[in-house]
Design brief:
The structure is a single chain. The chain is of the alpha/beta class and 437 residues long. The protein has 2 domains: 281 residues, Rossmann fold (3-Layer(aba) Sandwich), CATH 3.40.50; 129 residues, Rossmann fold. It is 34% helix and 19% strand. The strands form 3 sheets. It has an 8-stranded mixed β-sheet with strand order 1-3-2-4-5-6-15-14, with helices on both faces. Strands 8-7-9-10-11-16-17 form a 7-stranded mixed β-sheet, sandwiched between helices. A two-stranded antiparallel ribbon has the order 12-13. Strand 5, helix 5 and strand 6 form a beta-alpha-beta unit. Helix 1 runs antiparallel to helix 2, helix 2 runs parallel beside helix 11 and helix 3 packs parallel to helix 4. It starts with a strand and ends with a strand. The relative contact order is 0.15.
Length: 437
């Protein structure tokens, strides 16, 4: 069974705190059948589609135009999270804290962030009933949840974090024409050919391509070569390399060079000392990233800079001195200094509810809950027709959805288009510029 949290029951902050505690405790008494479990690891493989011009193709949301209403008095939103309650060892107060995996901590942190948003959501004109299910990161459990939500009038779904279960929910939402929000997973595989999917995060291929385009279009950087350093053994890395190669061949700039990395690779023979060089590093493994950064630093005093994965901004084990030396940059749609005023408020409200440290998932959970309820409150069930005109500035993430089309101008899905360009310094990461909203 799921848990329903109706906002019309909230009278004041005290009741909110008590009700939230009841909800969190109730998660642990949910039970599901785990027979025939099938666990499939994530495959965040990027799709090869690219944005294309809008053609005169039938809008999949055209049916909304025939509705005689756009807003409802009460909306039902389903959160399906991999809390994995059965793997959590309950604590005994101050003497022994609850023991849980990092995955469970992230899912609970996300849900706690949703709870922090409750008082603000309760002040909206519309009323919201929040349903939560623990899918245990399990396909069989997720299928049982689908059966259960089929009996409810769900208006929006926050999908499971992992690809295997998110795919199951995606197919259901497409069939039932229910908007599904991918809060954590950036995979195009889940969203492909499903215009009812709204992705909060951009996949790696388009993040790297956007930085490539930024350089190509900058007249001041016309003397800059662009290298993509990647792991040839990793399937997803090869996909990103192929995507960049494909797009570079289309623009005809002939400035992209692909370097498949190994520990014996010497960067110097590939460097044209009469030109500047930007190395886009695809690796995620920290030790290898530090090794690559060390080799590139030896190319100084030539003008060599680096661009990397957005996780660099939160990884404390990457050599900060090397990042600063190489003027490292990352594109990220999430950043803890995104909105300091709101961030402080969420921290304060969270501290009033629990003594736990506010992990980044708390802020993402808050923003996802606020974004979904705000678009429903403002636009009603017709919100997809106006989604391109709406932007949200959150505590952790900025959101402005854009449609992604296939080569035939068919709508594939919606994806967040707002991100920050961060630059590394010895004192931490700073914004290079603030994107227009």
């Amino acid at each position: 069974m799921g848990i329903i949290y109706p906002f019309k029951c909230i009278n004041d902050q005290t009741n909110l705190i008590e009700n939230m505690r009841i909800v969190l405790v109730s998660i642990f008494v949910l039970s599901f059948s785990l027979t025939n479990a099938q666990i499939i690891e994530d495959d965040n493989t990027p799709a090869m589609e690219s944005p294309a011009p809008i053609a005169n193709k039938e809008n999949p949301y055209k049916h909304l135009d025939s509705l005689h209403y756009s807003r409802k008095a009460i909306y039902n939103i389903a959160f399906i999270l991999p809390i994995k309650k059965n793997s959590i060892s309950k604590g005994s107060g101050k003497e022994r804290a609850a023991a849980m995996s990092s995955e469970s901590r992230e899912a609970l942190g996300f849900w706690e962030g949703v709870n922090v948003a409750f008082p603000t959501i309760a002040k909206m004109n519309a009323k919201f009933k929040i349903h939560i299910w623990d899918n245990e990161r399990n396909d069989s459990v997720t299928k049982e949840i689908i059966k259960e939500i089929s009996s409810k009038k769900i208006d929006a779904v926050v999908a499971p974090f992992h690809s295997s279960q998110a795919l199951l929910i995606s197919r259901y939402c497409r069939e039932k024409k229910i908007p599904m929000f991918l809060a954590q997973n950036s995979s195009d595989m889940i969203a492909k050919d499903n215009p009812y999917v709204f992705k909060f995060h951009m996949p790696k291929n388009r993040t790297y391509y956007d930085y490539y385009v930024k350089i190509i279009l900058d007249n001041a950087k016309k003397n800059t070569d662009i290298f993509y350093v990647y792991d040839g053994i990793n399937k997803a890395e090869r996909k990103v390399a192929n995507y960049l190669k494909f797009m570079a061949e289309k623009d005809g700039s002939k400035r992209l060079k692909l370097l498949e990395y190994n520990s014996d690779l010497n960067f110097k023979p590939y460097l044209d000392t009469t030109r500047d060089a930007v190395y886009m590093i695809g690796y995620s493994e920290t030790a290898t990233v530090n090794e690559i950064l060390g080799k590139l630093a030896q190319l100084k005093p030539h003008n060599v800079t680096v661009f990397g994965h957005n996780y660099w901004a939160s990884n404390t084990k990457i050599n900060k001195s090397l990042l600063d030396t190489l003027d490292a940059k990352v594109f990220t749609d999430s950043y803890l200094e995104n909105n300091p005023t709101l961030l402080s408020k969420v921290k304060s409200d969270y501290a009033a509810l629990t003594k736990d440290r506010a992990v980044t998932d708390v802020f993402l959970g808050y923003d996802v809950a606020m974004y979904i309820t705000t678009v429903l409150n403002n636009y009603g069930v017709k919100f997809p027709l106006s989604i391109k005109d709406f932007s949200y500035r959150g505590a952790y993430i900025n959101v402005k959805m854009r449609p992604i089309y296939d080569s035939n101008s068919g709508l594939l899905f919606f994806e967040n288009d707002l991100k920050n360009l961060l630059r590394a310094t010895n004192n931490g990461w700073v914004k290079e510029f603030v994107p227009s909203e």
